[in-house]
Amino acid sequence: MVNSIGALDALSAYGRARGVAEGVGGKGALPPASDTPASSGFGDLVANAVGQVGDALSKAESASMRQVAGKGDLIDVATAIGAAETALDTMVAVRDRVVNAYNEIMRLQI
Fold first, then answer.
1. In terms of Cα–Cα distance, which of 22, 3, 91 is closest to 54?
2. CB 6 within 8 A of CB 52
3. Counting CB atoms within 10 angstroms of each CB, which of 11, 24, 25, 90 has the fewest?
4. What is the pTM of this model?
């Protein structure tokens, strides 16, 4: 199966989704993270996973920039990129499963 969505496109979309989930102020915004329980639902689980993917990708980018500047180790870059790729692949797989489950629920007859 060929994915037509690039890794950076997916991260950008997840970042936008995370911003919406966290609320950007105004009416209907979610309460601050300190007021919510640690595991209040599926939305928090997804938001945390998106944050972890973003962190892994930013660490890979930092390691790459250090390597280009001559201050990093190539092994660290390869390790960080591998971890980021694995995290992003996992997030995409979870997204696909959630979409498939939603579609299956929508097909159920009432």
1. 91
2. no
3. 25
4. 0.56
Distance from C-alpha of 30 to C-alpha of 37, rounded to nearest angstrom: 12
Residues 6+ apart with CB under 8 A from 50: 14, 15, 17, 18, 91
| Spatial CA neighbour of 62 closest among 45, 80, 74 | 80
Query: Which amino acid belongs to residue 5?
Result: I
Determine the structural domain holding residue 101 and report its residue range. 7-21+38-107
Number of domains in the chain: 1
Own/partner pairs for 58-67, CB < 8 Å, 24+ apart?
A: 59/83, 59/84, 60/84
68, part of any domain: yes
The answer to whether 88 touches 57, Cβ cutoff 8 Å, is yes
Instruction: Give the whole-angstrom CA distance, residue 58 versus residue 21.
Output: 20
How confident is the model over 2-29, as pLDDT tens digits? 444 555 566 566 566 555 444 444 444 4
Residues 61-90, mean pLDDT to the nearest whole number: 90
Place of tokens 């995409």: 92
